[in-house]
Design goal:
Keywords: Coiled coil. By secondary structure, the protein is mainly alpha-helical. The chain has one helix at 2-135.
């Protein structure tokens, strides 16, 4: 019966088309996965190169700042050294000044004592002169 063969032939053709479409679908999925892998590889290389480029720029941008910082730190160190030297000179000046002050104080105390003793001698001399005068007849 030809009518019975027809749906069977149509179904067989459709099954063949479905299998062909399924096979094409699998091939497309494989192709898509290959393209995704390739794109992922390309993007990872791109990211790596961009990272290296940015790091290189950061170094280039940081280098002048680093040089200025080093120059400033060297200048600051020399100023600190000068300040320390000045402090040491000031300490020595204070020490010399203190020594002179103590010498002056000692000399002043010595002169005051000598002055006191001389006054006492002068007083004794005056008293003995007056006593000697009193003993003399008028």
């Amino acid at each position: 019966d030809p009518s019975r063969l027809r749906p069977h032939v149509v179904l067989a053709q459709e099954n063949t088309q479905i299998r062909d479409l399924q096979q094409e679908n699998r091939e497309l999925w494989v192709s898509l996965e290959e393209h995704q892998d390739a794109l992922e590889l390309i993007m990872s290389k791109y990211r790596k190169q961009m990272l290296q480029l940015l790091e290189g720029r950061k170094r280039e941008e940081a280098e002048p700042v680093l040089k200025v910082h080093q120059a400033n730190s060297g200048e600051i160190e020399s100023q600190i050294d000068r300040i320390c030297e000045m402090g040491e000179v000031m300490r020595k000046a204070v020490q010399v000044d203190d020594e002179q002050f103590f010498k002056i104080q000692e000399k002043l105390a010595q002169l005051e004592l000598e002055n006191k003793e001389l006054r006492e001698l002068l007083l004794i001399s005056k008293e003995s002169f007056e006593v000697g005068r009193e003993d003399l007849p008028d």
